[in-house]
Design a protein that fits this description.
The chain is an alpha/beta fold and about 350 residues long. Helix content is about 30%, strand content about 20%. The protein contains 12 helices and 14 strands. The protein has a 10-stranded mixed β-sheet. The protein has a two-stranded parallel sheet with strand order 1-2. A hairpin with a 5-residue loop joins strand 3 and strand 4. The longest helix is centred in the last third of the chain and has 13 residues. The two termini are about 20 Å apart.
Length: about 350
């Protein structure tokens, strides 16, 4: 696979952008369509593999461009079958960071019978600094480009097994919305992967204007990180509550139709005695009443330096049963990959550069 920081990347480009490139290089117009197929249908690693382009045109293209596929440089395998990959990020394309040191993101492949889900990252670190999340402790180190986001799928060894993608890895998708929209367009467009948008879920803490734009411009599922129905408590857990409260998020969601195929869900990490008691069940029901949605309860995975208790199975089951009985369909999400720090809230590449060099 090609890693060349001096050249531009083809991965992540649209048909119009490829048409402009072949025009500028003096190549036949139909060459843009050929390149599209090599990228998004054949998944080639190098321009030399684009065999229906003439050798002259391949050489011309190679002078300025590379495919941009970069293989994972490390992987860890959980006893439950989950695999966590470490992907490099193309240094010349960091967005929003003045630090040009080598950076990485973690991506998690989760097989489950005939279903196989990929948890994709969109930023190196994260600005949201949620109290319970290891990624937030890393701080923000840069946005991923659409090419870097797509590469986690493009260069995944299990790519052909994928049935679903969730943008629930490192970073806040709405804080890198342009790249998210471009990546999901390529994943769902006829010229790209031609996936149904119903195979893709994008998460968010809720960011004003950005969340509305995503709901208007995308047909993918949306998952909101709630973690508390009470604004004051949620602000202590999630500073983003101060910018867009959970009540504002729900009010916005009520403007959209989730009664058909598009799904709206809420992620809810359970903390023992803090947000898993009956009073929280009542508040969640009151907050979500009449909204077509579901709630996913998640076990808390301890992170260093954070004194938060995890909820026990009995409390989580009681909360699930209460919510379901009161019209809010609720499930307890199975925890996967905890032994390799691949479970919810555990992803971080703060020290990965040092480890790779060792």
């Amino acid at each position: 696979m090609e890693i060349n920081e001096e050249k531009k990347v083809l991965l992540g480009l649209s048909p119009d952008e490829l048409k402009a490139i072949v025009r500028d290089l003096g190549m036949p117009a139909f060459t843009a369509g050929q390149i599209l197929k090599w990228l998004y249908q054949q998944h080639v690693s190098t321009i030399d593999e684009m065999t229906n382009l003439s050798k002259v045109n391949r050489e011309r293209l190679k002078e300025q461009y590379v495919v941009g596929a970069m293989a994972p440089i490390d992987c860890q395998r959980s006893k439950d079958g989950t695999v966590k990959y470490l992907f490099p990020v193309r240094r010349s394309e960091y967005s929003g960071s003045s630090d040009d040191s080598e950076k990485f993101v973690e991506t998690v492949f989760i097989p489950d019978g005939e279903r196989a889900t990929l948890c994709v990252s969109c930023q190196v670190g994260c600005k949201m600094n949620c109290l319970f999340c290891q990624t937030g402790k890393q701080g923000f180190e840069g946005n991923l480009t659409a090419a870097d986001i797509l590469n986690q799928i493009y260069a995944l060894p299990e790519r052909e097994r994928l049935t679903n993608i969730v943008f629930m890895g490192q970073g806040e998708p709405m804080d890198n919305l342009d790249a998210i929209l471009r990546a999901t367009e390529i994943l769902t467009a006829d010229y790209g992967y031609a996936w149904s948008p119903r195979r893709i879920t994008v998460s968010s803490v809720g960011i004003k204007t950005k969340l509305k734009r995503f709901l208007d411009e995308s047909e993918c599922h949306v998952a909101i990180s709630m973690h508390s129905p009470l604004p004051e408590q949620r602000r202590k857990l999630m500073p983003a509550e101060g910018q867009m409260s959970i009540t504002e998020v729900v009010a916005l969601l009520r403007q959209y139709d989730f009664s058909h195929q598009r799904r709206c869900s809420f992620e809810y990490i359970c903390f023992g005695g803090l947000n898993d008691t009956p009073v929280y069940g009542r508040e969640i029901v009151r907050l979500l009443q009449g909204l077509d949605c579901r709630v996913n309860l998640i076990r808390f995975h301890e992170i260093p330096g954070v004194d938060l208790p995890g909820s026990d199975e009995k409390r989580m089951e009681a909360l699930r049963d209460y919510l379901t009985a009161h019209g809010v369909f609720t499930t307890i999400r199975a925890s996967r990959g905890q032994d390799i720090f691949a479970a919810c809230g555990l992803l971080s590449t703060a020290r990965k550069g040092e480890k790779v060099k060792e």
